[in-house]
Amino acid sequence: MTTLAKPAMRPARPEFSSGPCAKRPGWTPENLQNAVLGRSHRSKLGKARLQDAIQRTRQVLEVPDDFLIGIVPGSDTGAVEMAMWSMLGPKPVQLLAFESFGKDWVTDVTKQLKLPAEVLDAPYGELPDLTKVRKDADLVFTWNGTTSGVRVPNADFIAADREGITICDATSAAFAQDLDWAKLDVVTFSWQKALGGEGAHGILILSPRAVARLESYTPAWPMPKLFRMTKAGKLAKDIFEGATINTPSMLCVEDAIDALKWGAQIGGLAEMQRRADANLAALAAWVEKTDWVDFLAADPATRSNTSVCLKVVDARVTALDDDAQADFAKKLAAVLEKEGAALDIGGYRDAPAGLRIWCGATVETSDIEALTPWLDWAFATTLEQLQAA
Hints:
- By secondary structure, this protein is α/β, with parallel strands linked by helices.
- The protein has 2 domains: 29-264, Type I PLP-dependent aspartate aminotransferase-like (Major domain) (Aspartate Aminotransferase, domain 2, 3-Layer(aba) Sandwich), CATH 3.40.640; 268-388, Aspartate Aminotransferase, domain 1 (Alpha-Beta Complex).
- The chain has 9 helices and 14 strands.
- It has helices at residues 44-61, 75-87, 100-112, 208-216, 250-266, 268-288, 315-318, 322-339, 365-388; strands at residues 68-73, 93-97, 117-121, 138-142, 144-145, 150-151, 166-169, 186-190, 201-206, 230-231, 234-235, 293-295, 307-312, 355-358.
- A 7-stranded mixed beta sheet has the order 1-9-8-7-4-2-3, with helices on both faces. It has a 3-stranded antiparallel beta sheet with strand order 12-13-14, covered by helices on one side.
- A hairpin with a 2-residue loop joins strand 10 and strand 11 (234-235).
- The two termini are 13 Å apart.
- Pathway: Amino-acid biosynthesis; L-serine biosynthesis; L-serine from 3-phospho-D-glycerate: step 2/3.
């Protein structure tokens, strides 16, 4: 039996998954009563709800008026791939790869589209050398590495007079971090992250420069229907006015509207960012005084305030081989789940062994504070199991 006492209080909501993430505080299924069910999404009523989701996204995320917002299939992945398959080709391509999803985009570009591309990579916990980003090339990058807990600190590495376009996977950055719209041409995210929404739908945001690329360039490869954003060389604007390429779930749409209403009611983007920052600060205060754990992202300036990744640094664990360290981390997460103290906080399967705790705005800081004693207890319990084996 562990010598560390089991904490008396559990988090009120133990949902710390990095996607789908915790629902917004106070959520109930009754919030979805206005969902357009049993009707066509192309009906006047269905289209109005889709337009409402788009308009509320613009309001809460503070998207510039001349940017277009569309709801697309395939979650954030679908949105990123639509952009890459439709726009890349006429200029050199660079990709930043510092976590698993950024590496997926490298595979898309180099193996599927077969474009020559320069990959600027870095190990988990670090950023690539951003000074190597060229203004004459198209750039594909994640703003926040969901699986590494690392984010770009700002967009200063992107030239204001760039010649290429930037495609930014912002799925775990939107609503929590400052996106520099002047430097971004394509921005993507999914409802299942910072809004605590449901999966399967992506948001695709296009700047005027991105629209110009779509209307001036025709890719050499066949284009699947789900990726087609132009008709006869012109942008299919209806996609950004409430129409969709395929049938959306109107329950998911209503759920996103509910989350956006909540975001506006609590104070909009600034308050959502403040809540995420407060959650990270609560974890950071615990890490600072805890000797067995540290952030995967060593540099505080690049540390995510949403998908916070932690690593075990206790010498009794780091002395183990990689497989044994991974097994330890899995057992630690399993102990927490069994106790109902934290659900789904294991590190991403391709990332270094550790924990990943979602700290976005839908999570209460009081629950982060209630979690940290459980992390200590679970570590002590798992370590005793290891030593007894």
